[in-house]
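Fold it.
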Amino acid sequence: MAKEVTETGALRAYALRLLDSVYNASVYTVIGYSALLAMLAIIALAIFMKVIYVPEFHSW
């Protein structure tokens, strides 16, 4: 009986660590995605205000 309790406790601890790491990864992903969107918005605004020159591109 003691062995089953120990294995269950170890499994629970492993599951909690896995859940915590998945949660942290999702938080960092959301922060990184938000930073990327903010950077793209700043670049788009700079192009719109003609601070950055982007020549027209024609593929033909």
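The chain has a mean pLDDT of 89.
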